[in-house]
Write a structure and sequence with these properties.
The chain is α+β, with helices and mostly antiparallel strands and about 450 residues long. About 50% of the residues lie in helices and about 20% in strands. The strands form 2 sheets. Strands 3-4-10-6-9-7 form a 6-stranded mixed barrel. Strands 2-11-1-12 form a 4-stranded antiparallel beta sheet. A hairpin with a 3-residue loop joins strand 8 and strand 9.
């Protein structure tokens, strides 16, 4: 039998029992819709997590530290150069790292505990330098005010908790002041930062206030006025900084120009004074997360330790893989139930069309022709149910996404895209529906092919 004749005959048979075939097709559509809706939510959540981590600069960042800071703990380097002979993580080393292939920038970790005065009230806190490229950091999405106007501006961005401290805002347990509430009285106000600079003892400025003097260097106290330009709800360094995070952020270039005394200066105080700054760590931004490993390998060859968040996200990727697997399994259960409807529909069709099957066999129809006919009918119901199911699953995911965003907006959170239907999910869902339908048609097709034409013709 020709393919055209098979399709035409199958279509005619499907149209004869419209209600029963429509209900079977609707069952397949519901099964596919549940599969698409669940997987689209799983994929959307995975993409949401990836977007936020990528925007935070975590996936494309490598943290570089000196092996001298981990003496006795550097197991990786036991057979190589001793830690005390490893290179210093200083400004020349930072520039060398920045010139490596696929590196966008390498900036030092500059942070220090100091005193800031607001309306003549002193506050001790941690100040951290932020590169100007952090402007697109996810932590600043809900910030009140503006980012730094330039890379060297005398400006500061306050973390929410420090802003509350400046205003002496006290809330009951479980309640927090909003960023908007804190920003109104603080934006545009002035902070006075008192900090210590390490300079050669013979270069101490006249009229300075040397706090510590020695044969090599002096620590001189200075003041710097800062304008408050922003209040941030999140700490932009909270995921990649050391244990003590900044509560006040100033432009990194400004922090470098101030030559603030660093913890590394105290650590290296036994050595002769050097005008070249050394750093506890350097953050290296890479062109693409796919290039993080080659950059790590290149930095290690220079004699430094490295760490990237990609090493820590393997468990996260494994979690989403397991989540997608379970969502797919539960979504497929409805499709498995729908396959029973296909079997029932086709078995009933055999009983109703026994005489027709007997005539087809009597005029030369082979067993394979009968099987193909029932396979085409099953495949047609699967394909149509798959298409309708994908559309229904897309609509369900869309409604869930809209409802979630309404809830987020009521909670004063920005809207999110928690649902995604990629093209491969559409093709895969329709293909899966067709395969399930064809498998479900195996038994009815074999049963129809085994019919004795004589018995079938005598059947009334």
């Amino acid at each position: 039998m020709k393919a055209y004749d098979l399709v035409e005959l199958a279509g005619r048979n499907l149209r004869e029992s419209v209600l029963r075939n429509s209900l079977t097709t609707a069952g397949i559509a519901v099964g596919v819709a549940s599969l698409v809706a669940m997987l689209s939510l799983g994929i959307g959540l995975q993409q949401l997590a990836g977007r936020h981590l990528e925007k935070s600069g975590l996936f494309d960042t490598v943290i570089v530290t000196s092996r001298r800071d981990f003496r006795g703990m550097d197991r990786e380097n036991q057979s190589g150069t001793p830690p005390e002979q490893s290179p210093l993580l200083n400004e020349p080393a930072r520039l060398q790292i920045e010139r490596l292939p696929n590196v966008l920038e390498a900036f030092p970790d500059i942070r220090f505990i100091t005193q800031l005065s607001y309306k003549d009230n002193p506050h001790m806190t941690m100040v951290a330098g932020l590169p100007f490229s952090s402007k697109n950091n996810d932590a600043f999405e809900g910030m009140q005010g503006n980012f730094f106007s330039s890379a060297t501006a005398d400006e500061a961005i306050l973390q929410k908790s420090f802003a509350q401290e400046l205003l002496n805002v006290k809330k009951p347990v479980g309640e927090e002041a909003s960023v908007t509430e804190l920003a109104k009285p603080l934006l545009g106000q002035e902070l006075v930062m008192r900090y210590a600079e390490r300079v050669p003892s013979n270069h101490a400025p006249d009229g300075g206030d040397p706090a510590v003097s020695g044969a090599a260097y002096s620590v001189v106290s200075h003041e710097q006025k800062l304008k408050i330009v922003g209040i941030a709800d999140l700490d932009p360094e909270s995921l990649r900084g050391p244990a003590t995070h900044g509560r006040v952020f100033i432009p990194l270039e400004l922090a470098e120009n101030l030559h603030v005394m660093q913890p590394s200066d105290l650590r290296d105080s036994v050595r002769a004074f050097s005008s070249t700054p050394t750093y506890l760590s350097v953050s290296v931004r890479v062109k693409s997360p796919n290039l993080v490993q080659p950059v790590e390998d290149a930095v290690k060859k220079l004699g430094f330790n490295t760490f990237s968040i990609l090493d820590a996200t393997r468990s996260l990727r494994r979690f989403f893989a397991v989540l997608d697997l379970f969502l797919g399994i539960f979504g497929s259960l409805a499709l498995a139930v729908a396959s029973l409807g296909i079997v029932n529909t086709l078995v009933m069709a055999i009983l109703e069309r026994r005489r027709e099957i007997g005539i087809m066999k009597a005029i030369g129809g082979s067993d394979s022709d009968i099987k193909k006919l029932f396979f085409v009918e099953a495949g047609a119901m699967g394909a149509l149910g798959g298409v309708l199911g994908v559309a229904l699953g897309w609509a369900i995911g869309r409604v869930i996404n809209i409802g979630t965003n309404i809830y987020l907006q009521r909670q004063e959170f920005p809207p999110e895209q928690i649902w995604s239907v990629p093209w491969w999910l559409v093709v895969g869902a329709i293909g899966f529906a067709v395969i399930v339908s064809l498998v479900s048609g195996l038994y009815p097709a074999a049963r129809a092919a085994r019919l004795d034409p004589v018995q079938a013709l005598r059947y009334e």
